[in-house]
Design a protein that fits this description.
Radius of gyration: 18 Å
Structural class: alpha+beta
Number of strands: 8
Mean pLDDT: 90
Low-confidence stretches: 3-13
């Protein structure tokens, strides 16, 4: 059968994948079970996450996991660009700074947000991951304690901020403890309005 030459490839345009919390949640769920191999903060996938944010093997990788998942979920293969708006960083503090700069750091969670776990002892954000479920999401503004289902890298069964796997967790976030949520899907809207 002869090749149908009437079918053409789409032109490469400025098209980018629209920002979508649903895409982030789906991509995050695909990585559940990825674990370290061969040492602390090591292994083929873990080191791939770290390289994506220019960090060497052996570094904590929760923020690198968030970047990898967000970047991949919003990658357009035609333009070879991602619309993921958060910085390529391995630092929870850098994620918080970017969220503050764009006015998207929130007290209450929604599905698809990036969470930032605050340590009062260290006086900084020490862990991050992706919110994939929120208990009674329609009433989050009425409470200051939020129970969320998360997918996070570099954790373990007890919820450590430096564990060994990518897991689905149930976490309780108390606003008074300093935990915050990045509503990253609003970043481009706010940047365009500025």
């Amino acid at each position: 059968m002869p090749l149908d030459r009437s079918i053409t490839r789409p032109a490469r345009t400025g098209h980018l994948v629209p920002l979508s919390p649903a895409l982030l949640v789906a991509a995050a769920n695909a990585f559940i079970g990825v674990a370290e191999h061969g040492g602390d903060n090591r292994g083929q996938m873990v080191e791939h996450f770290l390289r994506s944010v220019a960090l060497p093997p052996g570094q904590p990788w929760c923020a690198a996991f968030v970047h990898h998942v967000g970047h991949s979920a919003h990658y357009d293969h035609l333009t070879r660009r991602s619309s993921w708006p958060l910085p390529a960083t391995g630092s929870c503090e850098a994620l918080a700074r970017a969220a503050r700069e764009y006015g998207v750091l929130r007290d209450e969670p929604y599905v698809g947000d990036v969470f930032l776990l605050y340590s009062p002892l260290r006086r900084r954000f020490i862990h991050t991951g992706i919110v994939v479920g929120v208990e009674d999401e329609t009433r989050v503004h009425e409470r200051d304690v939020h129970v969320c289902i998360t997918v996070e890298g570099n954790t373990n069964d007890d919820g450590s901020a430096n564990g060994h796997s990518t897991l689905r967790k149930v976490r309780t976030f108390r606003e008074a403890d300093g935990h915050r949520f990045v509503r990253w899907a609003e970043m481009l809207t706010r940047a365009a309005a500025a």
